[in-house]
C-alpha cells in the first residue's frame, strides 16, 4: 500500500509460471499492486538474463536508471544490474539457508535490507 500510495509503478518478474503465480497473488490479495507481471514460460530468458526486466521497462515505458529491482537471489541482482536498474537485495536472515549471501553481497547491490517492515536496516 505504501509504495502504491507514493505513486510508484510496481511490476513483478518471476521464473514461476503464471498458473502458480496468479493463485498466490489472489490468496494474498497482492495482484492489485502490480501494473504488469512477467512470468516464466512467456518467451523471455530466465534471470540472470536482463531480458524479462527489459520487457517490463518497455511495457511501462520507464528508463532503467529510474527503476529499482528488489530481489532475494544472486540472479535477481545480476539481472537488475545487467538491465541497468538500481538493485535492492532483500536478505532476511532465514534466507541464508537457501542462498549464498557472500556471493550475492560480492555483486555489490546498491542497497540491502533485511526486513521489509524496517527498510532502514541496511546490511551493506
Quaternary structure annotation: single chain
- Computed Rg: 14 Å
What fraction strand? 15-25%
Structural class: alpha/beta
Number of helical segments with 4 or more residues: 5
Low-confidence stretches: none
How many β-strand runs? Answer: 5
Characterize the overall form: globular
Helix content: 25-40%
Give the biggest sheet.
3 strands, parallel
Compact summary:
With 124 residues, this protein is of the alpha/beta class.
Structural features:
19% strand, 3-stranded parallel beta sheet, two-stranded parallel sheet, alpha/beta
Commentary on this structure:
There is one protein chain. With about 120 residues, the protein is α/β, with parallel strands linked by helices. About 30% of the residues lie in helices and about 20% in strands. The protein has helices at about 1-5, 20-25, 50-60, 75-85, 100-105, and strands at about 10-15, 35-40, 70, 85-90, 110-115. It has a 3-stranded parallel sheet, covered by helices on one side. It is globular.
